[in-house]
Structure formats: C-alpha cells, structure tokens
Design goal:
A hairpin with a 7-residue loop joins β6 and β7. α1 packs across α10. The strands form 3 sheets. Strands 1-2-3-5-4-8-9-10-11 form a 9-stranded mixed sheet, sandwiched between helices. A two-stranded antiparallel sheet has the order 6-7. It is 26% helix and 19% strand. It is α/β, with parallel strands linked by helices. The protein is built from 14 helices and 13 strands.
Length: 461
C-alpha cells in the first residue's frame, strides 16, 4: 500500500481562530472534560490519475504527481482516562465557501458522552485559498489565509486533487501519533472518516479509489451523498460540486473491506442532490438508512441562523440528528466486531422518481422518526417553489389543516382529559419513540430529548 511521507504538526496559537461555520451553539467542551486545539499540518501530498471510474465503484487509480501543502486541523479531544479509543476524522464541508462541520454539529452529544476524539480537516482548496460558494448567496469567499493572515498566513493548498492524500495523512497520523502533535497521548483503536454533502461526494471517491490503496480508515460514515463523486484532477483549484452532481452514478464498491454506513435524507434522493440513481441494496460492507420526511439540511443544523433565512415558511424540522447519533454508535460497534446496524426499508419512490406520500403528506417507507410516525405536520425535503436559492436544500415544515389533524387525532377512547386529541397524539409519539429505540434507529440516552421535541401545541382539542 502507498505510504506518504509523514506530515508535520505545529500548533496554531497566534491571532484569532476562525472556526468552522455553525448556526448551532457548540456544547461546552470543558464541562464534558474535552479540550480544543488547532494545528497546521504540512507535508507533501500525492494526487491520483483515474484509469477508470465505473458505475460499480471499483475505481482504478494510479499515483500521479505530488505537491507541498499546509492546511488546518481542528481537534476536540478528551483526556486519556476517558478516551473511548475512537477518533472521527471529519472532511470539513466547503459548499458555503468556507469550512463547516455539519456532522460534528449533529454528532457532538454522542461524541462527548462516548469519549470519542474528533479531528476536523480543512481538506479542500476553498477552505484555505477561498473561491466560489456553491450553496448560499453566491460570489467569491475568502479562505483562511485571507480571513486571519496572522494565524493562517503560512497555509497553502495545491488543489483538491491532493485533498485525498491530505486526509489519508491525517488519518495515518491519528492511527500512530508517535507521541507528538494534537493526539500525542491518545492511542486510537478505531479511526472513522465522516463527511456530509460535498464531503460525502469526496468520501465516495475516497472509498471507491483511494481506500483500497492505503487502508488507513477502519470505517466510513457517509451522510447525504449524491449519485456522483468528486474528481481526482483538480490541481490548483477547488472541485466544482455543481459538475459533480451530474457525474456518475457510482455505487459504493462492495469489496471496500471496511464497514460503511450511509445516511440519506428523503430530500437527498431527488431534487438537487438526486442520489436515487446510485441507490444500492445493503451488502457485506455497506448499510444505508434513508430518513423519511427529512431534508438535506434542517432547523437543527441552522440553529440561530434560521431566523435570517426566508424560505417562504419554516424549514424542515426533521429529526435526523437522533438517527445520525444511532448510526454512529452502530458503526463503532460494527467495526469492533459487533452486530451489523439494523436494516431499514428504503423511502418509497414511484415510477416518476417521486416520493410516495402517506395520508399526511409524509413520505412512506424509510426510517420513520417520531415526528413522521406520529405526525402533526407535513415534513418534506422539497423547498417552497418561490424560495431563494439558499433554501434549496432546507425543505419545508408545512402546517396541516385542523380537520386533517382532527381526523388523525380525534381523541376518542382517551381518558377524558381537557385535550383528548393531544393526549392521543402524545401517547402515539411516545410509543413511536420507544419502538424506534428498541429497533436501534434511536438511542435510549436521547429519549428525553426526543420526547421534548414533540409538537403537542398543534392540537388544541
């Protein structure tokens, strides 16, 4: 297997840090016994020349040239005595024109309570050098170097063709720290690569072509991938994610040799992301969960930014956060020799590649979170037709007519309280929560948080 030269880590202490974008307040690391540090990682990265990129995912790559790089890694880690032995390496997402850590946002509570370490990698050109924002208001953005030159002025990125080996080198360091750098006194047992959206496109390329050559990661969590994948030839520039949307389709190779869990929102299957042509059945190494009623991104991810977004109504308020936490725990157990994650039915699709809706408008099939299984609103991954481009991945939460809700939750047979319809709804919501926990799609530790996310105010009778 290919072995790149060992990268060098230097802690960044000068100037003000520029953390990955997040609309949600981060959990208190110190209260959880975690610390955060930021490092420049530098070295020489190789690129690859694809011989073939077939639809079955068996990408045949050859090593091409190499180039020097210096990029940023952000590390959130526990003390050694509470370390689980698991390190997540997140390929930070640059679709907004700068780094974001969407999967850390979703997974933070599980990471902290489990004692995992997390390493966010500024893997792509745009993060360091700036460039086009694929999602958002458009235009050119500044990279880390320009945003905070006193802290990041020495960083430089040779282009996304080298991003794959940059991530490999970080993963290899995590596996064997040699007593130096940000994880010096931690000894990793399991190293998992994670990435959402554009980063999942990149990890699709990585799984299909790079991983068989280097074997650095023990497992992969791909969140909201499309049917396409990022290319291998972007030297001196960032990848064009819009072009990647039309590339493929490519399945994940079934001989990958490492557990892969894919979590897809209903909204990923059609529309902008359009992953449906690459849908594949579960196999020895690949398990897919599709979440009914869920948009690509949602209210949980937006956090306080939601108040500044006009999407002609509320954005999707689905519960993928809880499903993702469960998926991570299953993946950690699976790679350690435990049981495979439970199999999930796919979201039902009609002959015109549209989602088949139930009587409340929510998609049928898939992982059915409590807000879909016990519905008081219509959740969809499809944005309002008049919404601004920023909303294209945020879906909608649509209020249902009162009569529709009365038909679903009439309150008949309840105990005669002031709001029998509401009581009936809350009983069904609680039963759905407990059933999904028993099935493995939600975690028992999240039960109270999930129950608190019920929406009884929709029912006034």
């Amino acid at each position: 297997m290919h072995q790149s030269p060992r990268a060098t880590y230097v802690e960044l202490t000068q100037g003000k840090p520029f953390p990955p974008m997040s609309g949600r307040a981060a959990p208190d690391l110190a209260a959880a016994g975690f610390s955060e540090s930021e490092w420049a990682v530098s070295g020489e990265a190789v690129s690859y020349g694809p011989v073939a990129t077939p639809g079955d995912g068996r990408f045949e790559l050859t090593e091409a040239d190499s180039a020097p790089f210096a990029t940023r890694v952000l590390v959130r880690r526990p003390e050694p005595d509470s370390f689980s032995g698991v390190v997540l390496v997140e390929w930070l997402n640059v679709s907004g024109g700068q780094d974001a850590a969407p999967d850390y946002t979703y997974l933070a509570d599980e990471i902290l309570r489990a004692g995992h370490a997390w390493v966010g990698v500024s893997a792509q050109f745009v993060a360091v050098e700036g460039g086009d924002a694929a999602v958002g208001l458009g235009g050119q953005t500044k990279g880390l170097r320009a945003q905070r030159p006193e802290r990041y002025g020495e960083l430089h990125h040779p282009g996304d063709a080298y991003a794959y080996d940059i991530v490999t080198q970080v993963g290899r360091y995590v596996r064997d720290t040699e007593g130096a750098g940000p994880l010096a006194d931690l000894r990793a047992r399991t190293v998992i690569a994670v990435g959402e959206s554009q980063s999942a496109f990149a990890l699709t390329s990585y799984v299909n072509g790079v991983h068989p050559r280097v074997g650095v990661f023990d497992a992969f969590l791909l969140h909201s991938r499309g049917a396409g994948y990022l290319p291998f030839d972007d030297r001196g520039r960032g990848s064009d994610i819009v072009a990647a949307l039309g590339r493929g389709p490519a399945a994940l190779r079934e001989d990958v040799g490492a557990p892969v869990v894919v979590v897809q929102a209903e909204g990923d299957l059609i529309g902008r992301i359009a992953s449906l042509p690459a849908r594949q059945p579960d196999s020895e190494y690949v398990v897919t969960w599709e979440i009914a009623g869920q948009a690509h991104a949602d209210l949980y991810q937006l956090g306080e930014f939601a108040q500044f977004v006009d999407c002609h109504g509320p954005v999707n308020s689905g519960q993928q956060v809880f499903v993702l936490r469960a998926a991570l725990r299953h993946l950690v157990s699976w790679v350690a020799g435990g049981a495979r994650p439970p199999a999930a039915l796919p979201v039902e699709i009609d002959d015109d590649d549209g989602v088949i809706a139930d009587d409340m408008g929510n998609g049928r099939g898939g992982v059915r979170t409590p807000v879909v299984e016990a519905p008081v609103e219509h959740l969809t991954g499809v944005p309002h037709p008049e919404a601004q481009p920023l909303c294209m991945l945020l879906g909608r939460t649509v209020e249902l007519p009162e009569q529709v809700l009365r038909d679903r939750w009439p309150g008949e047979g309840q105990s005669g309280g002031e709001h029998p319809g509401r009581e009936q709804y809350l009983v069904a919501y609680r039963e759905a929560t407990d059933r999904l926990i028993a099935e493995g799609f939600l975690l028992p530790e999240d039960r109270e948080e999930i129950l608190a996310d019920a929406r009884p105010e929709r029912i006034t009778w």
